[in-house]
């Protein structure tokens, strides 16, 4: 058990054209990163929206690496379009879709703006809460 952090600053490094076409630039960089770490044991990779997508998620699961990260709408193969619009969601609400093979979960969570999360490791449960500062009330309030 342990926590391992690995940072690779991406600066015009070359990634194979095939990987770039399959996974996008961010996914190709994530594939390169995973190629440098041992994957005999289950590994969890947390990324931001530039490195997260369904195509790279499938590749990583095949290598015993589970991905969790924020994701751009255009990297969800149209699944994000099935979610309600931001104006129809209340602050603190969330919706999720799980793929039929149960290898991926996409969650849309609404705070001031919405956030899309894609994961092959985690689902929407358990539902938690946190506190945020409300300027008008001058106090912290619970947020789901």
UniProtKB/TrEMBL annotation:
It holds the Pfam family DDE_Tnp_1_7. Residues 19-126 form the PiggyBac transposable element-derived protein domain. InterPro entries: PGBD (IPR029526). This is PiggyBac transposable element-derived protein 3. The lineage of its organism: Eukaryota, Metazoa, Ecdysozoa, Arthropoda, Chelicerata. The gene is PGBD3_44.
């Amino acid at each position: 058990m342990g926590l391992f952090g690995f940072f690779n600053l991406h600066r015009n490094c070359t990634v194979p054209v095939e990987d770039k076409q399959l996974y996008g630039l961010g996914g190709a960089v994530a594939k390169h990163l995973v190629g440098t770490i041992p994957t005999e044991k289950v590994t969890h990779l947390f990324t931001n929206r530039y490195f997260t997508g369904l195509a790279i998620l499938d590749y990583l699961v095949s290598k015993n690496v589970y991905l969790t990260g924020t994701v751009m709408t255009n990297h969800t193969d149209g699944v994000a379009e099935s979610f309600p619009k931001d104006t129809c969601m209340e602050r603190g609400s969330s919706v999720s879709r799980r793929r039929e093979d149960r290898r991926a979960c996409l969650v849309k969570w609404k705070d001031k703006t919405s956030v899309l999360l894609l994961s092959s490791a985690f689902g929407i449960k358990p539902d938690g809460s946190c506190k945020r500062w409300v300027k008008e009330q001058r106090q912290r309030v619970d947020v789901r």
